[in-house]
Amino acid sequence: MTKIAVLGAGSWGSVLASMLADNGHAVELYGNRQEVADEINQKHSNSRYMKDWSMNSKVHATLDLAEALAGSDIILFVLPTSAIRSVAKQVKAILDQSGSKPYLVSATKGIEPGSKKLVTQIFRDELYPDNSDLMIVLSGPSHAENVAQKDLTAITLASTSLDNAAKMQRIFSNEYVRFYTSNDPVGVQVGGAVKNVIAIAAGMLAGMGYGDNAKAALMTRGLAEITRLGVAFGGQPWTFSGLSGIGDLIVTCTSVNSRNWRAGYQLGQGQKLADVLANMGQVVEGATTVKAVHEICDKYSLDMPISEAIYHVLYEGADIKSEIKLMMNRQMGPEIRI
Ligand SMILES: NC(=O)C1=CN([C@@H]2O[C@H](COP(=O)(O)OP(=O)(O)OC[C@H]3O[C@@H](n4cnc5c(N)ncnc54)[C@H](OP(=O)(O)O)[C@@H]3O)[C@@H](O)[C@H]2O)C=CC1
Ligand SMILES: O=C(CO)COP(=O)(O)O
C-alpha cells in the first residue's frame, strides 16, 4: 500500500484523494478549512467544492501539514498556483526533520507571475534543487466533476524520469482513468496552464453571442500560442497535440464545468472581474496565469495576441469588442510560422 499526502482539499484534490483511496492507497488530505475537514471525516462529502457527491470513506482530512506528510511516499500538490511556493516551503521544513524524500506530483495548472515559473521549477527552488526526476506532472482533460462520477478520463503523467512517470501510472490508474506517460514535464505544464487563458477567451465569445466558427478559430489559434510559449520554454512541439495540450484545451473551452470558461462567459456578459472572481468561490487559474504570460511575452518578445488581449481586458480596462476588432485587423500572414 502506498501512502499519499494530497495537498489541497478543494474540488480536484478531494476527487483525486477519493480516487486514490478507491485504488487501495492510504490517503491523507490536507486542507485549510476546519469545516471542510470535519465534513470529509464525518460525512465523507465536501459540499463546498463538490455538490451531491460522496467520497471514499477511507480518506482522512487534516489541517495539520506534518500529520498529512508523515510517512508519505508521494506528495500530490493540488493547490492553486498562488499557494504552491508558500506550502512548498512548509513541506521542506517538515521533510528536513524526517529526512525523507517522497515523490512530488503536481496536479496544479498555472504559471507564477513575477518569477514566471512552472510548478516543477518552484519545487526545484523550494524543495529538491538537485532532483527533477522525483517530480511528476499530472495534467490532461479532467474535470473533477466527471472523475467524481467515474466517467472515462485520460490523463498524462510527465517526468524527466520515464521510470518514475511509469511508477505513478501504476499507482494512479484504474478502470475509469487511464494514464499515459511523457518525458516532457515542461510542455505538459505549459499546455495545462495556458489553456486556462484561452478558455477565458472562449467563455467571453460565448457570453457575447459569437458562434461555433469563432470558437474553433479561437481554439486553433490559441493552440498556436500555447505551442509558441511551450517551445520557447523548452517543451517538445508534439506534446501540444496530446492530452495535456489540445485535449485539455478542448475540454476547458467547451465545458460548463470549467471555472475559466464560466468566468469568461460572465465577463462577456458585462460583469466585472472582481465580482466574477469573488462569486466563483474557487480558483480561476487563467486570471493569474495571464499575468505571467504577459510578462513572458514582454521578456521574450513572443507574439501571443489572444493571451495579450485577455490581459488587456482583465487588467488594463480594455473593451472586449475593441480587442476583437484589433485582432481581426492584425497584419495578415501565413497560418504556420516555423
Ligand atoms: N477542478 C478541476 O476540475 C481541476 C483542477 N485542476 C487544477 O488543480 C488546482 C486546484 O484546483 P481546484 O481543486 O479545482 O481548486 P478549488 O478552488 O476547488 O480548491 C483549491 C483549494 O486549495 C485551498 N487552498 C488555497 N490556498 C491554500 C493554502 N495555502 N493551504 C492549503 N489550502 C489552500 C483552497 O482553499 P480556499 O477556498 O480557502 O482558498 C481550496 O480549498 C488548480 O491549479 C486547477 O487548475 C486541474 C485539473 C482539474
Ligand atoms: O483543468 C481543468 C480540466 O482539465 C479544469 O479547468 P477549470 O479550472 O477551468 O475548471
TrEMBL record:
The keyword Cytoplasm applies. It is found in: Cytoplasm. Substrate binds at K109, R259, N260. Residues 184-323 form the Glycerol-3-phosphate dehydrogenase NAD-dependent C-terminal domain. Gene3D superfamilies: N-(1-d-carboxylethyl)-l-norvaline Dehydrogenase, domain 2, NAD(P)-binding Rossmann-like Domain. The keyword NADP applies. This is Glycerol-3-phosphate dehydrogenase [NAD(P)+]. The lineage of its organism: Bacteria, Bacillati, Bacillota, Bacilli, Lactobacillales.
